[in-house]
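$ ./design --mode recover --in tokens.txt
reading tokens...
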């Protein structure tokens, strides 16, 4: 126990520092009842519904577009941890205090696990005493990666990242203890059940398993069979536990379904088949060709049976939603499209892979690539996953966070080399200053900090336009930067209105579900296409057409933010539409303005009968 605790000290130290930094940044909004993002709000709304009596198997969100409620494809797994913490703390702190405790403690636990996994992987790359601390600093100081574990961040991405790292570590250990390959395969299956965006790194890990077998070690054949079998079994179990029996074989592309059950089965058969021929297929080239052909065949079979999944979950999204919503969602953009709009964040997303490249030259030991990559199962696996996931991240930005998690141990080699150079400097104080300088220069925050000074983020500047003045009615005014339309200080005022169904803008929906008792039309989810499209057609349509649509869906309120980017886009595409007319002061007679105060940042109207 003492030895394990000692080995954990670097991760615990970095965890404590990052928790302080994260708490300072997050405390103001969390104490008001807010959360970092839309997915966090929606997760809390889902957890509340479950704790309030909704079936464990029922993931529908009935307050999101009641005429056709959202059939969510999310997993219940994160809800178990978050809901469990809320139930645990409710008798002590009451419901609001329990929720606050849960949204702080849950990501804090995940952050610590992430740092422990990164340092454990790093120990397989180098025996240097500085390696664990270097790896923990690399992961902790990469702010896009750390943002997934900030206080309040309760969406599923943090859990997915630690499952990915756990799968990688298990696979590394399997090179000497093959049974751990089964654990890796099972963790891959669970990660897929949380979200199909895990598919690129799962495929990369499958490729690493195949590469291990191609390297010619006999025990890797057994490990490959165990990995494939466990992944298939895990997919089947997760599918059975997460979906009603009637949906088990529905060919859904954006969630765990028969599509990925077939893919898992094909991969498992390919891996088992290759392992059977371990004694007959000799030589790296033959084995690599065999396992590559088998893996490709698994993908081809799946695509042949379910060709509709090639287009991704957004392929059939309405063009109006594409232009007003999806084309402006950063995490869904290709990296090269997003990068010019925010050089600081773009650099932070790719800095760890770049620092990992430095490890090919600067290393704390005598090993030299490519020999070290060939001989080290850990380094070989990490490079395979980093390269494949990076290529996927170029297509969709959100995957770049996974790249950082896998690249952190590799990047730590370069930092470890730089810190080790200080050993030759005489004088403890001087040596300490040199080490701190080396850590800073090789850290993932160095380049983003420089870019912050010379190339301010356009995204940040645009967000500043949404800031409203402090709430004049508040006894304790808060910083104006927190008072956007999504601020809980504004949204909670809507509870003074009788509960009803509000036509809202996309980025208002999820916060309103948490902060108010109202149902809403819109939220940033492609499965809510009917609700999002209905609201957009009302906002962009003529007042007469809007009245007809509003009557058909039975809405009670229209609520729109004065200065949302979505508001500006709707005014541009529909200069004579309802929202533009309202902005110009031309209020149709079927709308009754609700006075929320002169500083209120939203326009609120009750729909007359």
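writing sequence...
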């Amino acid at each position: 126990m003492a030895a394990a605790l000692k080995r954990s000290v670097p991760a615990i130290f970095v965890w404590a520092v990052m928790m302080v930094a994260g708490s300072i940044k997050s405390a103001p909004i969390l104490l008001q009842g807010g959360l970092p993002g839309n997915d966090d709000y929606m997760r809390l709304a889902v957890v509340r519904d479950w704790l309030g009596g909704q079936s464990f198997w029922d993931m529908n969100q009935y307050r999101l577009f009641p005429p056709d409620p959202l059939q969510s494809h999310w997993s219940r797994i994160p809800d178990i941890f978050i809901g469990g913490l809320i139930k645990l703390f409710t008798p002590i702190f009451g419901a609001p205090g329990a929720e606050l405790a849960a949204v702080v403690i849950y990501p804090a636990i995940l952050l610590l696990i992430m740092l422990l996994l990164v340092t454990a992987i790093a120990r397989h790359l180098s025996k240097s005493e500085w390696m664990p601390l270097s790896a923990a600093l690399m992961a902790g100081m990469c702010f896009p990666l750390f943002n997934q574990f900030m206080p309040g961040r309760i969406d599923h991405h943090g859990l997915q990242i630690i499952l990915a790292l756990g799968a990688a570590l298990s696979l590394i250990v399997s090179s000497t203890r093959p049974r751990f390959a089964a654990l890796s395969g099972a963790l891959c299956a669970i990660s897929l059940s949380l979200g199909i965006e895990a598919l690129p790194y799962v495929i990369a890990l499958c490729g690493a398993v195949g590469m291990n077998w191609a390297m010619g070690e006999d025990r890797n054949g057994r490990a490959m069979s165990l990995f494939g079998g466990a992944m298939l079994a895990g997919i089947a179990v997760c599918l059975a536990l997460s979906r009603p029996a009637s949906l088990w074989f529905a060919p859904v592309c954006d969630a765990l379904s028969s599509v990925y059950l077939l893919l898992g089965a094909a991969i498992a058969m390919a891996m088992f088949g290759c392992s059977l021929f371990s004694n007959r297929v000799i030589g790296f080239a033959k084995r690599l060709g065999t396992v590559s052909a088998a893996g490709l065949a698994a993908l081809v079979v799946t695509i042949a049976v379910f060709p509709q999944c090639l287009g991704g979950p957004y392929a059939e999204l309405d063009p109006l939603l594409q232009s007003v919503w999806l084309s402006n969602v950063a995490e869904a953009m290709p990296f090269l499209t997003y990068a010019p709009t925010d050089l600081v964040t773009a650099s932070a997303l790719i800095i760890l892979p770049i620092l990992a490249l430095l490890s090919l030259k600067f290393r704390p030991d005598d090993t030299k690539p490519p020999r070290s990559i060939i001989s080290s199962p850990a380094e070989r696996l990490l490079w395979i996953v980093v390269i494949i996931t990076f290529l996927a991240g170029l297509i969709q930005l959100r995957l770049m966070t996974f790249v950082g998690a896998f690249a952190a141990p590799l990047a730590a080699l370069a930092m470890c080399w730089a810190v080790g150079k200080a050993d030759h400097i005489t004088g403890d104080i001087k040596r300490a200053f040199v080490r701190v300088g080396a850590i800073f220069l090789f850290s993932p925050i160095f380049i983003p900090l420089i870019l912050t000074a010379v190339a301010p983020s356009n995204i940040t500047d645009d967000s500043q336009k949404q800031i409203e003045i402090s709430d004049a009615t508040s006894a304790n005014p808060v910083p104006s930067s927190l008072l956007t339309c999504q601020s809980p200080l504004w949204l909670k005022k809507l509870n003074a209105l009788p509960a009803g169904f509000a036509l809202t803008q996309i980025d208002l929906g999820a916060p309103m579900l948490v902060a108010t008792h109202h149902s809403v039309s819109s939220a940033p989810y492609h499965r809510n296409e009917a609700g999002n499209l209905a609201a957009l057609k009302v906002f962009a349509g003529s007042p007469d057409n809007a009245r007809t649509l509003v009557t058909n869906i039975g809405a009670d309120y229209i609520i729109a933010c004065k200065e949302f980017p979505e508001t500006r886009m709707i005014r541009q595409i529909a200069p004579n539409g309802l929202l533009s007319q309202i902005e110009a002061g031309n209020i149709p007679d079927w709308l009754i303005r609700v006075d929320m105060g002169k500083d209120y940042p939203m326009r609120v109207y009750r729909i007359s009968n």
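exit 0
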